[in-house]
Hints:
Elements: H1 17-21, E1 37-41, E2 44-48, H2 59-77, H3 82-92, E3 98-105, E4 111-117, E5 124-128, E6 137-140, H4 143-149, E7 153-160, E8 166-173, E9 180-185, E10 191-196, E11 204-205, E12 211-216, E13 234-239, E14 249-251, E15 266-270, E16 277-283, E17 291-295, E18 307-310, E19 316-322, E20 325-330, E21 337-342, E22 348-352, E23 360-365, E24 369-375, E25 382-388, E26 395-397, E27 404-407, E28 409-410, E29 417-423, E30 426-433, E31 439-441, E32 456-464, E33 470-478, E34 489-493, H5 510-513, E35 518-522, H6 532-536, H7 544-559, E36 568-573, H8 576-586, E37 593-597, H9 603-609, H10 617-620, H11 626-634, H12 637-640, E38 649-655, H13 664-676, E39 683-688, H14 699-716, H15 733-739
Parallel strand pairs: 3-28, 34-35, 34-36, 36-37, 37-38, 38-39
Antiparallel strand pairs: 1-2, 3-4, 4-5, 5-6, 7-8, 8-9, 9-10, 11-12, 12-13, 13-14, 15-16, 16-17, 17-18, 19-20, 20-21, 21-22, 23-24, 24-25, 25-26, 27-29, 29-30, 30-31, 32-33, 33-35
Amino acid sequence: MRPADLLPLALFACVTAAQATGPQLPAFPAPPAGDPVTETKFGITTVDPYRRLEDLKDPDVQAWMKAQAARTRTVLDAIPGREALLADIERLSKVTTSRIENGTVLRDGRILLQRKEADADLARLVLVDGIDGGGQRVIVDPEDWRKRTGKPHAINYFLVSPDTRWVAVGISESGSEMASLHLFDLATAKQVEAPITRIWFDVDWLPDSSGFVYNRLNELKDGQPPIERDLNSQAYLHRLGTDADQDPLVFGNRHDPALGIKPEEIPIVMLWEQSDYMLGFPMTVDNQVQLFAAPRSQLGQAKVDWRKIVDRQDNVRWFDVNDNDLIVMTSTSPDRAIERISLKDGTRSVVVPPTPGRAVDYLSAREDALYYTLRERSGVGVGLFRQPWDGGSPAGVALPGLQTLYPLGAQEGVGGMLVGGAGWTRFPTVMLVDAQGAVSETGLQPQPGGVDASRLEVTVVEVAGHDGAPVPLSIVRRKGTPLDGNNPTLLQGYGAYGYSISPYVLPELFTSFDRGFIRAFCHVRGGGEKGEAWYRAGFQSTKANTWKDFNACAQYLVDKGYTSPEKLGAMGTSAGGILIGNAMVERPDLYRVIFADVGVMDSIGAAQRDPNGPANWPEFGNPDEEAGYRALHAMSSYQKIKDGTAYPAVMALHGVQDPRVVVWNSTKFTSRVNEASSSDLPVLLRLDYEAGHGFGSTQSQSNAERADLISFMLWQFGADGFQPVLAGPQESPADATAAQ
Length: 740
């Protein structure tokens, strides 16, 4: 919680007719003129009135986007309470002396940590002596890149060599995630070799530390469409001291066309020191993976005898390797199971059978045991289990209060596991599970000072969906919050890829809790909260269950007095843009504020013209197949916006460098809502030119975004001290451009 001398706002004024009309905003800059594009496919006709906005190199589009960003900044900065609120967020973001974002335990007990200090804007890569976190030495500081370039940089990934001499670090600019790989000497922290560009995903070291394997995306030539960046990428072998541009292919459709690797699949090679085999993984978002195996001794040879060890029909969701066995999570059962597949002869056996009502969520093969998590029966949170390799029954690992678990990495040969964790009322911490299964605290993650999470209470209920399905809803609020329908509330949801919403709390969130906010999370179908069947019930042709579940949760919050439509905001991020856009177009009366955060709003366009679109066809649908195209059309909120509808206030947030969801999803969506809405409520487009999908954003960027979200809601909810005073409509530079 926050210090006692910082009092929360006690009163929220009712939304009057005058407030509903609101202050006169600067005029929404008119998009550059362009002819609507009409297309008919599989008997479905679509009209795209803002296709021109997809050309991000068009000078008129660029000027319009800059005008939109400036208008949004003008509006948000005019909210009187925003400055004090941002100061509160910044103070709370520093009450924890440091935060761990990632880590790897070395064989000698030292730990490489990606750690952000309280007064820093970015996490650094540091080497500490052990689990007490002492003896810190900085290996990589992204601020060095910002000082040279003027742009924020971030560490995407890091991998230490088996001999602990080198560490390979991916560093990207402005949230782009398009990392260049840099090699550092761990003893001196000095950089060696020239960086290798366009390595989005992490690398795997050779067991003798002489080099590594990696995937490299394509360098676009002049005139090539952006979608070509990710298609037909290849896996390479790099030997230290050699020219990376001469690295040989080791896996991909150019290396061996007979393997049938599709253009949109990302070929990855994976190595383990203790295994005689290597894996080839054609990676997509498909949760039914395909794997190839080959003798590791063939790596670097002109001919590699790759053989398919797992096909997509085997229903393998994820995997790891223990010696010469592949350990897989299978989804044949709705609750999933864990099996062992011999890499020598393909024989299979069950390691962990399905547990009714508790789906397997994660697995990791470590030196002493197989560690795995099971979803709680409520669908919210997980529990950790440990199955020793030397026999015996699996046993639960007691981690009280931790509902979200994120194990830290370790070199092969390290026993036990460091486990990061958090909960709805438990700040992040790091626990040690030793090689015998005993649990102890570590000193790696300090706890915040002056903030007490025990002041919060959590309610998890099941809400009846539109078809009667029981949908979990987590409601987090200060103890004693009255159920009088007058509480400002933010409801969030996701519902894609089988990913579950993870319970967590951070000190910065008390900026909203101490202003009376309720935070609610709808665990919709399409997520993994209740296992495989729950995921598949919000997938492609059944995707509508995702946003219908969300609207059912919103209605529950209103019906039970937690809030009212006038005080209800809703947010969806990334693939959650499908959820939030459709929730809005189906029930515009249910929400006062809609946030679409780096969201997929034009699912048809994204599938066909976003560089990351083809990789997502397995999740949302293939636009070249009728069933897939119909599914994409049904989930496109952009196509469903209707003229003359009273839509809620809308703010779309997007990093212009986003490599996962291209920014024109937000520019087109806001343009169409602004054109169609009859409510006169604001439509804002918040663009950050030094950010991407959220990965790699600085602390100051995160703080500013949180302040904008809360301030915008308090303005729209009618809170005293948050009603802006603005000048009347003004012509923007983009208006003049569009008129030419």
